[in-house]
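Hi all, a correction to my earlier message: I attached the wrong file for NUDIX hydrolase. Here's the right sequence:
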Amino acid sequence: MDRIILRQSLENYRTPFEEESEFVDEFIELTFDDSAFLRSRLEGHFTGSAWIVNKRRTHTLLTLHKKLNRWLQLGGHADGVENLLEVSMQEAREESGLTSLRLVGNGIFDIDKHIIPQKGDIPEHFHYDVRYLIEAELNEPLTISNESTDLAWIPFDSVDDMVGHNPSILRMLEKTSRSEFAL
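and the right structure:
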């Protein structure tokens, strides 16, 4: 059932960003694959992420990913769970320690297909990342997980420098300032 809801959400998903709209059909097609929610699907699989912002929309929470050594949004593998909002919220809690997490809007915020480099005996593969806009309290204490080397609330005007001009993250930042997601 969750897979059907995801497919319908993707079919109804609209974005003004050409680079994002180019792979919507691929995401939809992937929902028909029984193994798409498992990391054992080595050519690529679904992941769920949380673009976490504070209520005033001045900061985003980023993690310095231990394996990739890059500042990224929080998220992770579906590991068989077809409800990617549930995956995103669980990963956000586990990776930050935050309990004040709240979904903003009523569905998918962003999607991104990106390559993950080979690590040990795991070959290079794609992550089909479905992202949700999540709001949290800026003053709530943070807990760094074993998947990160750092975790920080980054002011919006510093995100570009922090993420090394990552177009996917900059797209989410731009979306956050749009009227439907602004305060």
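Sorry for the mix-up. DSSP finds six helices and eight strands in the chain.
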